[in-house]
Write a structure and sequence with these properties.
This is F-box domain-containing protein. The structure is a single chain. The protein is α/β, with parallel strands linked by helices. The chain has a domain of about 130 residues. Helix content is about 30%, strand content about 25%. It has 11 helices and 18 strands. Strands 1-2-3-5-7-9-11-13-14-15-16-17-18 form a 13-stranded parallel beta sheet. A 3-stranded parallel beta sheet has the order 4-6-8, with no helix packed on it. A two-stranded parallel sheet has the order 10-12. α8 runs parallel beside α9. The termini are far apart.
Amino acid sequence: MAPLVRKANRVGHNNIDRISDLPVNVIECILCHLPIRDVVRTSILSRKWRYIWVSVPQLEFGCDFFLYCYERNIGNQVPGIITDILLLHSGPVSKFTLKIPINLSMEITCLNKWILFLSKRGIEDLDLACYQDESQKMPSHLFYCQGLKYLKLENFTLPADFRSFKSLLDLQLLYVEFEFGALERLISSCPILDSLTLGYCYGPDCINISSPTLTVLCIEHLQEIKSICFKKAQNLTDLTLKIEPAAINLQLLQDSITSLKYLKYLNLDGVNFDEPEDLLFMAALLKSSPNLVELVIMIYGWAVAPLPNHQRAVDFSNSCCLSQLQTVNITVVTASEHALDLTRFLLANSPSLEILTFEVLHWLGRKHYEKLLTISQDLLRLGRASPRAEVKFLYFGNTKK
């Protein structure tokens, strides 16, 4: 047996370490996809690997990193660990992610020091989240990162004296509190901003977005919002609005959206088809959006039976041409008569339509099951301007008594 063992050892000794022989930039790319704890561990593999990790261009201190530290009872050492890793790092840092958990006690001065370090290492993509009970003031040293192209902030307070980010392309703000005037100053101070996301933010009751370079805008569930205007963001092509229409000035919103001549993707969540104002808003919107390619809409409303003529504030019988529209996804709480009118209108006025999906999330008991079946059959029989149009009917509710 001994000769066989010695032969096996020789074969193993002669095996080629293909990973170590890869170019350094390829190895760095591989390490960018590993948790930070494993990236640092590669330093013990061999002499060649000892210092490769210190030049990895992407550093991520996410939930897995903090969980790993807490499981080993070193949670109180986390700020020092992050500081040591940054100090040992010798190359540029293009992307940095930090998700501070709710149970971590950390001085904001630590975060300021880390950001100051990153500003000197060519940071381009920064993702900061602070899951504390109260929002933290945005680190002042963030303004030193003038090379930033992508910035995501979660649970911070934005000061009114917001300074410029001349290279910023994509800005995402979640659970952010704005001081008075901060949002407008923020947008105007980013001269080449292309994409803006505002989600679950609070502070301003009026939003006036002015940015001729903006093409993508996503607004979701803003607190205390009463007015939205983006007439001066006329180059928008991609718009997502998840709001409560009853809480805002629909006329101003309608004027803003109908001025968007280049709009190709529209996602609306919160339209209530029991409200005449919402119906008028939807009808005007469709008739002024000839370049739409994709429409996603979430409709609320409980009117199952057809409404009397004197209660129907608007219908969708007037024709218009949505010549570019290819994809439609309509999700309804329950299949109201107006939702069906909208579907009929879209099928009849979209000559390029490829697929329309009609989803029902809820129904009012088993006694309506036959009605549900009838609606699905009616949808499939509706006239279509496009010979290629496919109609899908989906139901996710229950049919219990």
